[in-house]
Amino acid sequence: xxxxxxxxxxxxxxxxxxxxxxxxxxxxxxxxxxxxxxxxxxxxxxxxxxxxxxxxxxxxxxxxxxxxxxxxxxxxxxxxxxxxxxxxxxxxxxxxxxxxxxxxxxxxxxxxxxxxxxxxxxxxxxxxxxxxxxxxxxxxxxxxxxxxxxxxxxxxxxxxxxxxxxxxxxxxxxxxxxxxxxxxxxxxxxxxxxxxxxxxxxxxxxxxxxxxxxxxxxxxxxxxxxxxxxxxxxxxxxxxxxxxxxxxxxxxxxxxxxxxxxxxxxxxxxxxxxxxxxxxxxxxxxxx
Length: 288
What we know:
alpha/beta; five-stranded mixed sheet; 8 helices
């Protein structure tokens, strides 16, 4: 009897473990409150639905390769890299764009015809699997293909620390990934115990709160700030030429060729005055 009860309890336990392991796929996150109740975070699905409904059919999305299959399958949009990681050079180019400053990243995005950029940010809810925690892998892969442009040591402090606060490396605080994750985050105060711009995942106040974009604009941010999407702006029109100030006309007469100059209507300097008079008639001689 005891053996039967043990087997029944084991079956119930296995069912519970399996339900918890397989009922929460990677696109749906669950959190538990102090009372044991569960909160469902549906940011991924909502973001992919927004991409599907609000972007062009042929729009190209740049993100890290982890989300490539999800974007292609749920949003039905073209991605630059996906979970099929055989093309390391292409992944390295995306990593270089994420690791560079906005100006250099914009050049890469224009070459790749990127329309939107998607990043995952967990600083609001404390999600540790976001792109900031994956960022060093982007740097390392990019450095492998572009060692002259990207160096991993530039993203650490002098003490060899990877920090997102004021003591962080200037290269990190101004790279594209940092700016896209923390844009407008410096204005957000999550609770009264922490200052504005406090990252719950890294347990630090961010160092760059004055973030502005020149070549990107925010298109969508999910409810819990987990998914952020930016639109790549088109190239600016050419700057209109500023007319130069009119110089004072010189007193010297300019030489004008008779062959090339246009014909001008002429006039007579001293026009003769014609007076009307009586016409004299001459008498013809009579014939004899």
